[in-house]
Specification:
nine-stranded mixed sheet, alpha+beta, 5 helices, Rossmann fold
Length: about 180
């Protein structure tokens, strides 16, 4: 695809900004919501693209290999936004797999591609991620840990898809006497 290199380059900018805000590693989960339709300028859910999904997956896999972060791919509304992860991730987080296999018409092209490319994939109903990237306004917030903090970068889109990102931080609890550091 003629835009593939540009999509991957843009995704790299986003992932680098996310990693700069929060140093992601093997202890963390990255939730990914991606509308491949939106990337190619179509409405979400209308024109899923296996080619776009493959290009994005390769970049996410490279980021995982570099950082050790666990990848979690949100499916579409037709599977209740269930999450595709590797079984190792589900076991580590004590998540119960559900009986679903994402495909392009129920789950979306991105989750479908991830399921086919991941090592021993399973689908789980919920996850609480440490960071997230939302490509095409897929609404990943339901799968983020509290408290989500927006991350900004120099660009705001991959192809035609609007992109938002967030990292989580611990809640600041207590009253006026509470302290949040040893100083």
């Amino acid at each position: 695809m003629e835009n593939a290199a540009h999509w991957r380059e843009s995704l790299t900018v986003f992932l680098d900004a996310l990693h700069q805000k929060k140093a992601l590693d093997h202890r963390h989960v990255l939730i990914i919501g991606a509308s491949t339709s939106e990337v190619i300028g179509r409405n979400i859910g209308s024109a899923g693209s296996e080619e776009v999904a493959e290009e994005l997956f390769q970049e996410f896999a490279s980021f995982r290999d570099k950082t050790g972060v666990h990848l979690a791919f949100q499916g579409c509304e037709h599977i209740n936004r269930a999450i595709t992860v590797e079984r190792e991730t589900a076991d580590r987080l004590h998540l119960d797999p559900v009986s679903a296999v994402p495909h392009p018409r129920a789950g979306g092209a991105m989750a479908s591609r991830a399921y086919r490319k991941m090592k021993d994939p399973v689908v789980v109903e919920h996850i609480q991620a440490d960071a997230g990237i939302d490509i095409g306004d897929t609404f990943i917030g339901m799968h983020m840990k509290h408290v989500a903090v927006p991350v900004r970068t120099s660009i705001d889109a991959i192809g035609s898809a609007h992109v938002t990102m967030a990292v989580s931080r611990p809640k600041l609890i207590g009253g006026e006497r509470a302290k949040y550091s040893l100083e």
